[in-house]
Write a structure and sequence with these properties.
Oligomer: single chain
Number of helices: 12
Distance between the termini: 71 Å
Structural class: alpha+beta
Number of domains: 2
Largest sheet: 5 strands, mixed
Strand order of the largest sheet: 6-10-11-12-8
């Protein structure tokens, strides 16, 4: 008679949280799935509720429209070890189904989906809501540019509580006295004196002639960086350019939206509100990409609209700024909305050195990276 596969062992899985659970609650025996001996095992009925809590984030679909639930779980979370994933005879799928169906009773658990069917990932409604809002804003900017209806207004800000909760989940405090950095190219050859400290703060409103990632024309903000080299790189200084780099000290405690080191969940198990956290992962990954995505000068007026809107939402929800990745260096950038919240305390001059590197671009490769707003730029 074939051995009953009613237990699974720690070596069947790659997920660290699942391994920890099996080690702490299991007993030593041999595994009927991967063949390991004298290893920690637990009954499938103990794993079933854990797996069903994860499977609920996927939607059942028609047979020819989706994937197996085992493939989705492995692609998204790398739950199973290579022993199971690379085994023959569809072992990973059989094990997944055995776990998901363990402990279920056909008469009592009628609301459970058919795990042997096809599934798809849930739509990211939070990111979709953001895309819809920004599409409207950008369409207005393109088709009604002369009126500048959203030049400095909050008219399009969402009233959804979802954004408020989302920002709260990614807020961090910057303590008074924290040091960041700001760089400014000395462009005017006729000015022989070096910049004074007060000239290395935020520009005055009348000096803000161009839009930025976090500001509109005439609306100054303070762009800072985590370190000197990141601050220098963000200026796009040319070879030999003289650049002033200031050490900037925060004058008060600030509440910052942290997009700089946002990482997806490393495990779906033992997570409350898993679906919500997956939604946030998509949304905040999108935010970080938009803030650090290089923008061509002729596209700034349009492609800065989404990040300006993002900063409006952060302000509306009580934040003082946003920290986001740098496209130029391993460091990060910080934009502070209140230009009086920090002050330059020290400065030095450097001469920029520039090293160029490149990747070959194939004949069939797109010249520019795609953005979520290309369909709107084509209308412009």
């Amino acid at each position: 008679m074939p051995k009953k596969r009613n237990v699974a062992c720690i070596k069947c899985f790659k997920d660290k949280r699942l391994q920890k659970f099996i080690r702490e609650t299991g007993t030593k025996s041999h595994c009927p799935w991967c063949g390991a001996r004298n290893t920690y095992v637990v009954p499938l009925e103990e794993l079933g509720p854990l797996f069903r809590d994860v499977a609920i984030i996927y939607n059942p679909v028609a047979w020819d429209m989706g994937d197996t639930i085992s493939d989705l779980l492995q692609e998204d979370w790398e739950i199973f070890s290579e022993r199971i994933e690379n085994a023959s005879d569809d072992l990973m799928e059989k094990m997944t189904l055995a776990i998901l169906e363990a402990g279920l009773h056909p008469k009592d658990d009628v609301d459970e989906p058919d795990y042997q069917g096809s599934f798809e990932r849930s739509t990211n409604w939070l990111e979709g809501s953001w895309q819809e809002e920004v599409d409207k804003l950008m369409e207005s900017a393109i088709t009604d540019a002369k009126r500048r209806r959203y030049q400095s207004s909050f008219d399009l800000l969402s009233d959804s509580e979802a954004y408020e909760v989302a920002f709260e989940d990614f807020g961090i405090e910057y303590e008074e006295g924290k040091i960041l950095y700001r760089a400014r190219i000395h462009k005017n050859r006729t000015i022989k004196e070096q910049f004074k400290l007060h000239e290395l703060g935020a520009p005055k409103p009348e000096e803000v002639k161009n839009p930025g990632r976090a500001n509109r024309v005439g609306e100054p903000v303070l762009y800072l960086a985590s370190d000197e080299k990141t601050a220098l790189s963000e200026t796009r200084a040319w070879k030999g350019a003289p650049v002033a780099i200031a050490k900037v000290r925060l004058k008060r405690r600030l509440w910052i939206v942290n997009l700089k080191d946002h990482r997806p969940l490393d495990s779906p198990f033992f997570e409350e509100l898993l679906d919500w956290k997956v939604q946030l992962t998509g949304l905040f990954h999108r935010f970080g990409e938009e803030l650090c995505r290089p923008v061509m000068p002729h596209e700034e007026e349009i492609l800065y609209k989404p990040t300006q809107h993002l900063c409006d939402l952060a302000r509306k929800n009580g934040f003082d700024g946003i920290a986001y990745p740098s496209a130029m260096r391993p460091g990060f950038n910080v934009v502070i909305f209140d230009t009086e919240a920090a002050e330059p305390v020290e400065r030095k001059y450097v001469r920029a050195k520039v090293q160029y590197d490149y990747d070959n671009l194939g004949e069939d490769e797109p010249i520019y990276d795609e953005t979520p707003y290309d369909h709107l730029l084509e209308k412009n």
